[in-house]
Amino acid sequence: MDGTRSSDAPLGNDNAAPQESGEAPPLRVNRTRTGIHAKPAPSPEADLDDPSLYFNRELSHLQFNIRVLEQALDPSHPLLNRLMFLLIFSSNLDEFFEIRVAGLKHQIALAREESGADGMPPHQVLAEISRIAHEQVERQYRILNETLIPALEEQRLRFRRRTQWTDSQAAWVSKYFAEEIMPVISPIGLDPSHPFPRLVNKSLNFIVELEGTDAFGREGGMAILPAPRSLPRLIRLPSELSEPGYTEYVFLSSMIHAHAQEVFPGMEVRGCYQFRLTRNADLAVDPEDVSDLASALRGELLARRYGSGVRLEVADNCPDRLAHFLLTQFELEEADLYRVSGPVNLTRLMSVLSDIDRPDLLYRAFTPGLPRQIKSDISLFTQIAQNDILLHHPFQSFSLIEDWLQEAADDPDVLAIKQTLYRTGADSPIVGALVNAARNGKEVTVVIELRARFDEADNLALASRLQEAGAIVIYGVMAYKTHAKMLHVVRRERGALRYYAHLGTGNYHSKTAKLYTDYSLLTANETLCEDVHKVFQQLSGMGKPRQIDTLLHAPFVLHDRLVSMIDREARHAQKGQKAQLIIKCNSLTEPQLIRALYRASRAGVQCDLIIRGMCCLRPGVEGISENIRVRSIIGRFLEHTRVFHFHNGGKPETWCSSADFMERNMFRRVETCFPLLDKKLAQRVRKDLATYMVDNCQSWELQTDGRYRLLEAGDAEPISTQETLLYAYAVKP
Predict the structure, then answer these.
(1) What's the CATH number for 380-545?
(2) Catalytic annotation present for 509
(3) Residues annotated in the binding site, as ranges?
(4) If you ran DSSP here, which 8-state letter would residue 706 be given?
(5) pTM higher than 0.70
(6) Mean pLDDT by 10 residues, the chain (733 residues)
(7) Among residues 257, 392, 483, 647, which one is catalytic?
(8) Does 3.30.1840.10 match the CATH number of domain 53-354?
(9) Strand (E) positions, 295-341?
(10) What is the Cα–Cα distance from 420 to 423, expressed in whole angstroms?
(11) Backbone angles phi, psi at 393, to 5 degrees
(12) Fold identical between 380-545 and 553-729?
């Protein structure tokens, strides 16, 4: 197998062949050591709490981001989508530093280091993160500069650097700078009366070295030049100034570099270097100290922009003395410094994907399908009452849910609507339908999770919009995030009240429904709908946990029932019966669930785990986990479905859930897990899972030593799960 398609160096391999001095490692050979060191396999009698059986959560998270970066070099993706993956890696890494690295630093600062099941102390994890992140950031910029930019230029898409501007382009840039940039730029000279400014999280800035005397007689020294956040980071050159047939862009940073002298008239600019500071962006809201969650969050959102520094990115040509000066200002160490060969704010380049009209360089467009039984001329209430409806997004249309909610808003027989909202957006059709329903006199109750990370401001806005329309808005339970995806409708039919419900694995967000894989169930099943009703009553009222018959919900019974169902498979195996389970979710980190899976494997249960991101379970350990296979699917769509299937002695059970196998989902969130009671729908989902298990195009298999190996078709027929599902469910072109 060609090593360029693998990520097959052991994560703890200290014996990898060294590179010759000065020679950069090959881009596609991801020899990423993560500190997850291979240890001797424990005996079958080994303690399942042994730290050697667990991978570190943060390092596993970082490995997922590296698998995303790998897609930038995969020629099976269209070129602009390869660029998109590279930019997503930047965005993911930003959040990783803002939340995960910031959390580790906070523990160390307070001298309250807590190790997870893997036993690695935070200071050691932080050191490994720094080493790996430095390697991968350097690799990312080499991919951009050596692979993607040349490939884009071959497609007549060009990024002009300052040294490449023609005279006419330079004149246009000069005019643009004078008219668009100069009026909004605010240089900050550094002297005793102008201390180092507080800079906004992830903002683009320049440190400038000056020589001479200014208008007030002050001697030159240093200045900070913040780039206006209102300006685009990439500016398209007029077609008449571009080479014929080319679409050309210049970077805002290049424009500022080229004209820094004009910002400091009469002074000599000796150097101008871009930098960006990443800050701690986690929100700290203490349930015991908050009487008004919305007001507390508004204050925290302002503070988020100025949290403590966690990472400094500087241009690779920035002199050491200036880089160290910045580190001192932000109270950071050498390990927190990242020198980059290109723009320090790559995520802002995402705008180019929507600006370029080149469908030939993007994934082909598709039209989401609908189940064959859906009839456009029949009320959705009638169709749901006849049979449960299961949708698999984005292959099948999310608009059906929006249409049903709008029908409910307009239906005079609908009396009440209740819904949870986690990530939605204030301008969502879902919110519009709820507003319409409230204005039509329906009893509308919405449980909004204000603390959905990085969506807090949007959720505050939509809460205000719903309240103004007359809806009852509840912010859930203070100590537990409401992460469940539920919609409940009460309708009068033939003189009696009937319940309808929607349950999903993903958010009520029209945009992400086109990018994330998720399941949606529309049902009128009496028991299931009654359970949804009880969960809403728990959220809005007070009292002891209610008896819920069909749903599994966190933080009450979900964790224990999952452990019980895994142990049930183990008992079947011990009796010599066929035993199998398939778990598909985003992350697997919760130790008790991992121990249950180890017990199942030891009993002989075939355990197939499809874990997109973090996985702390170590597969393939003799006597412990040799019956466990773990794979991660990375492709066009973000795998987001949570599905749990158990063979159960020939009486299979298939569940969908809003929860991952993580501590926070099991113990600190309100989650739901719902069974597929319709046997045909359950069989359909099992067929989908079977497709994931034979994918040989986008599947990365986790090895015993912690590395991920890309599964390739070789001489076999290539099978891409996402392409297969597109063909199966989307509208045929």
Answers:
(1) 3.30.870.10
(2) no
(3) 92, 423, 453, 516, 612, 640
(4) S
(5) yes
(6) 37 34 45 40 68 96 97 96 97 95 90 90 96 97 97 96 95 96 92 81 94 68 92 94 95 95 91 95 56 50 69 96 96 97 92 92 96 94 97 97 97 97 82 95 91 67 87 85 95 96 94 95 97 93 79 96 98 96 98 98 97 97 96 97 97 98 96 97 97 96 95 92 96 86
(7) 483
(8) yes
(9) 309-315, 337-340
(10) 10
(11) -85, 150
(12) yes
